[in-house]
Predict the 3D structure of the following.
Amino acid sequence: MMDELEARRDLAAIFRWTARLNMHEGISNHYSLAISSDGSDFLMNPYGRHWSKMRASELVRLNAHQEPGELGDGVDETAWYIHGALHRNVPQARCVLHVHSRYATALACLKDPEMLPIDQNTMRFYERVAVDDGFDGMGLGDEGERISQQIGNKPVLLMGNHGVLIAGSSVAQAFDELYYFERAAETFILALSTGRELNVVSPETARKTAQQWMEYGEQPEKHLKAIRGILDEEEPEYLN
């Protein structure tokens, strides 16, 4: 069974780190983490708390089968609709991260949002990204149900006209995917901005590199450990 206190600390840490990376939107956007075996009980950020100040104890515990009217004032309704649906419908989505980060969102605003394999980071996501092109307003009502169907078994959902969503097996794995997806999108957008022809590798090379990323030791865990090590020294109040 997951240690809830450590789960809270992991999640609080990546809220603060996302703010440091300027990939947040102040008090908006949302992260969640399943803490029950069936995924229905999950932690999520309280509405109105700035990400740079998030503490472990402030994360709200919710159930994916609650009714919207039972949520209270501390929960962003759009967040619950999206994350509740993911935790109900997608068993592998233990940790769900949704942001409107600069470069991923720019990519999501293109008519053709395919991120071509032009460097190691873009190759990491070759054939691993689902695209939702059904944006129809903010994530209320059936929006979350549609999103949970669109992601399938992919770890990344590029949300057209909206942003990006990551579904991972842990905080470490999900955040590592988010971090490198934003880095990949940045490289791709900058390369497109030159107006020059892209040097796209073959599908075989892209698949090989993506597989190598997936087999690259314990990078996600080491990445999160390094982040928490910095926060332990500089912002230890996140632990409380």
The helical segments are 4-20, 77-89, 102-108, 120-124, 143-150, 171-193, 203-214, 219-234.
